[in-house]
Amino acid sequence: MAHTTEDLTGLDAIARLKELVEELDVAMMTTRDAEGNLTAHPVSTKEMDGSGDLWLVSSSAGAGGSGPFDVGLSYLDREGRRFASVAGRAEIVDDENKAAELATDDLAERLGADASEVTLVRVTPTECEFWEPADGGRTASTQVAGMRHGRVSC
């Protein structure tokens, strides 16, 4: 049986990326600290809005800087062999209404933070990429062959 790789681009890739990041929910957000070191912290992806921005919730300790800052988001579903990577510009958003809309009761606990330490982050993606089984995850193989790949410049 031949394995093929299916590539998605453009609107198809964006639509599938939206589904993936909202399904996978928790990601590691990589930023630079004050000394320029790369650091990563867990975040919860709450939604990808109509303009393509990702709305995340993070512990304030891992939220990064206040002004726009570069981020990398890494998503993993080991069991389903689904992976997504998002590079973009992020900013902390002080919007109590949006935070209340996106918050869930167990969110702070999942992020290892007190509810008062949760921060709202908006990420505007610049480059996005994902990989998943082309057959929807029905293959037990761990080989890259047979994977669906999507890449899009946002």
Automatic annotation (TrEMBL):
InterPro entries: Split_barrel_FMN-bd (IPR012349), YdaG_split_barrel_FMN-bd (IPR038725). Residues 12-136 form the General stress protein FMN-binding split barrel domain. This is Pyridoxamine 5'-phosphate oxidase family protein. It comes from Microbacterium jejuense.
